[in-house]
Every structure is written in C-alpha cells, then in structure tokens.
Amino acid sequence: MADHTLEARDVRLGYGEREIVPGLSVAVPPGRITVIVGPNACGKSTLLRAMARLLTPSAGAVLLNGRSIQEMPTKDVAAVLGILPQSPTAPEGITVSDLVGRGRYPHQGWFRRWSAEDDEAVARALLSTDVLELADRSVDELSGGQRQRVWIAMALAQRTDILLLDEPTTFLDASHQLDVLDLLTDLNRDHGVTMVAVLHDLNLACRYADHMIAMKAGRIVAEGRPVDIVTEELVGEVFGMRCSVIEDPASATPMVVPLGRHHVKGPPA
Amino acid sequence: MSRETVVAEDAANADQARLADAVRQVSAVRGRSLRRSVLVGAALLAAVIVMFGVSLSFGDMVMPIGKVVATLFGGGDGGSQFVVLELRLPRALLAILVGAGFGLSGAVFQTVLRNPLASPDLIGISAGASAVAVTAALLFQVSGLALSASALTGSLVAGAAIYLLAWRQGIVGQRLVLVGIGVGMGLSSIVWYVMARSEVTDAQEAFRWLAGSLNGRSWGQVWPLLIALGVLVPLTVLAAHALRPLQLGDDAAAGLGAKVEGGRLALLGCATALAGVATAAAGPVGFVAFVAAPIARRLVPGRGAALPQAALTGALLVLVADFAAQHALPSVQLPVGVVTSIIGAPYLLLLLARANRVGSGG
Known about the structure:
Chain A is 31% helix and 26% strand.
C-alpha cells in the first residue's frame, strides 16, 4: 500500500473569532498509529478536523502528499483519507449494509452507481469489524459497541490509506473500547492503514499508540513514542495532574497512575 | 510442496470462501431491499392509476370505465368528451402533479435537514406563497397565471429569506426549522391583515385558495405545472446524488467527499421550487408534503430518502383526498386542503408527542 503523507504546516485554527490553535506544525508518520491526547478544549479535535479538511485553517495549510488539502478536489481527498467524526448519528431506520455502503460514495459517479467492487468492499468492511450478521438490521436497534463498529465499517468501506478517528471509544464500556482499539491495530498491521485517533484514556493511548502527540492550549507539548515521552512531568504539565508513571505489566508501555488528594498511601508529598 | 505452504494455502482458501460468502450475503441484502423498493413503487403507481380511473368515471354523472377509456382515446360523444376531457381529466391530472410535487419536496426537505418537522408547509415556504398571492389578488386584483407566478415568487423569496436567516457558518436543520416556523407565522399575519382589510366576497375567494383547492381547475393550471415539474424533477434527481452522504451529517458527508453546503443548497432550492409550483397551481394544500415522505419511508424501511415512493404517495394522497372532498358531503365541494389537513394534523400531534418522549425535539 502506498504510503501517503499528511502534515499540518503552521496552521492557525479556530471557530469565528475564537482561536483555538495559534500556529502549529505536525507530520503524521505513515503506516503507524498516532494518538492525540490532551485535556478538554486543548484543540485536539480541532486539529483532527483540520487534517480532515472539515475546518479551513485561517493561516497555514494541511498538506496531503505535499499538496494543500483545501485545494485538492474533495472527492480525490476522500479516496485517500477517511474520517470518522465524533459521535455520528445515523438517519432513522437505515440498515447496517446501507450505512456501510455509503462509504463507497467517493468511488461512485453520477452514472456509475453500484458495482461488484462496491459489494466486495462492503463485505470486507463488515467482515473485519465483525458485524456481517447484522447486515440487514436497523442501526437504531444496535448496542453502542455494535453501532461504533458499524461506523468504523462505513469508514473502512471507503478504502482509504489514512483514517482519522475523533474519539472512537467515547461512550463505550471498557471491553468495547479494547475491541475497537484492537480492531484499529489489526487494520494497521494487516493493511498498513495510517491511523490518527483522538483518545481520552491515557493508558489505552500509551498502549496502542506507535506515536503520541500531547497537546495543551492549542500547542504540542511533546510528541514521540509513548515510552520516550510519557513522564510524571509531562502528565503534570499537560493535564495538571499529579501521578506516578510505572510500567504497564501487560504491555510494558508507560502506565499513568493518577494521584489525587485522597486514597494515596504513604506520607503526603 | 512443504507442509507450511499447504497450510497457508488452505487458510487463504478459507479466507477467500468466507469473503465470497460475505459478498453473496451483502448483495442478497441489497437485492431484497431493492426488490421491496421497486415492488412498493409499482404498487403505489398501480394505486394512483386505479384512483385516477375512479376520479374520471365518478361524479354527478357516473360513467363506465370502458367509456372513459374510449373517450380518452378520442371516442365518446360530445357530452362525455366535455365531462371527461374538460372537467375531470385536468382536475385529476392536477391532483397527481400537485401531490407528487409536494411529496417530493417534503421528502427532500426532511432528509436534507434530518428533521421530520422540516416540510415546506410547516416552515414558512407555503406561508410565503400565500402572503404574496393573497396580497397580489386582494390589493392588486391579480388573477390567473399571474396569481400562480406571484405564489411561486412568494415561496422562493420566503425560502431564500429563511435560509439566510438560519445561516451561521453553515446550516443546522433544527435552527432552520425554528427560523422557518417563525417566518411562517409572520407571513401568516400578513395574510390575515390583508384579508381583514378587503371586501368579504373577495376575501372569501382568497380563503378558498388558501385552503388549497382543486375546484374549478382546468388545463390552464395543468400545463404550466407539467412543464415546471418536467424541469424540476430531473434537477432534483441530479441533486439527490449528494443526499446519500448528506443524510449522515455534515462532517461524515464532507469526509466522504460530498460538497456539503453546495449540495444542500441545490437540494433545498429544488425542493422550494417544487413546493412553490405546486402551491401556485392549487394553493397551499396542507400537510401533503409533511406526511407523504414518512408514509413512504415506512413502506420501504432502511432505504434512505425513498424519493420516488414519496412522490407517488403524495400523488395518491391528493387524488384520494380530492375525491373525498368532492363526494363526501352531498351538497358541498370541500377544498382538498381541508381533507389533507384532517389526515395530517393528527400525525403532527403524534410526532410532537413522540419527539417529546424521546427528547429529540423532532
């Protein structure tokens, strides 16, 4: 699979008068899983939306394969880069296979509507997200975990080399969070899909990220392999939280143990 | 061949078989859904044709269907030719065209704005047509084709005004619906002001138009509407290409490479014009645009917008309603809009009650 490059160069981002990211540059490592972390309202979703051309930077540019993403035909971008927005809502009554089939939109024209290739892409997407047996069910009837897998299937049916995901595990219980992150890792390892995800859970982020970007107040505080960058100082600076960082016994990645004012052993620090 | 390669090949073959099976399953699900959609469309079309035949043969003078068909193809005597070709045919055709126009318009509005309350008769498009048409008729004595033109102008101006007022770096369905209801109320007050100022007999004429009526309609209303729909329906079909991604919400649609604002504007423009030309021909026939699409979506669940079925449902609805309006009461011909409102109002209440319960606000 061709490795496409995606980078933001000196982008300033905001909504109307309110500036959220005051100038930032970042390059997404191709073929890897990148996870963006940071406190609420730090601009991580804003950055992801800009990288997906859902938000136009007021200065600077997002470059896909060296070309400004805003100047490329939007359907050409959609053939390379997919986005799963934060908590998307399905139209009432839509079936799973119909929803997933809509991921084929960028590959269809005004007259070339549906082909065997589309059927195959949908079938593969349903298989790899393990929702094939739900194909003719209505999305309304599904559980939160199933629904999220169906949306990921929709993004997969788009068959893009880069996939951006805005908080794909929000509102899921612990086991479904693991399911979704395992699924993303499978797709990355088996098909070389470049992933960029915004995640809330620091420990899952440390475990699943090849590359981590820590943001605060619209700026990147640190980026690199979690094992290289996640320290007590970094967590303190980014999240304003005391913690101790130990080795995750399962994955040997950093594990953040938060320290509040209560329920902490030993003399107060 | 080593054992490992055999095992690997077996695994690859198993994967291939699993994929082939999945592809079969996916195409079977799609086929079933498509068959149902075609079947429902055909059934609706058949019902429209039957009701069309009934409308042509029933009246003060009941005519056997054989004679109706013969008359349609140039046979029959002078009397039957006058009754069928001049009185009943234009009225029945107009009912079909008006219903299809409203049905299609409502379906597009509701799916684009992702809100079942977003239909042109509730969000001020029809009120715009009424305000301009009534003002033109009562203050400037405009009638005939010019009156239709002023109704169309009114709906387009109201549509544009609502779109601009609701615009805040994009369009949100909920906000557009609220702005539309507000604009609609303002426009209705203009209608009542003009009515209150005018002569009772003139006002009564305007009132009949406002209720939405096919009484006394002739070929003079059929041809302009037929031509307008001949242009607008193909445009709507073209614009509807963007409807599939747009239904998933703005971000998902943009991610799929749809032109969100442009696509939505084109669709809303077509839908406003459709409601406008239908209103111009028959007045604001209440609730047809509002209920046609939900009925159609219920008949073909899980297929998104169901535009052709919504248009056919609208046509059937107006045909049946107009038939009832003509023959329900022995001495009076009701305006068709009265009958459609009797069907539509309970549905609106049901929808509001349900929306309150699930907390979706429509």
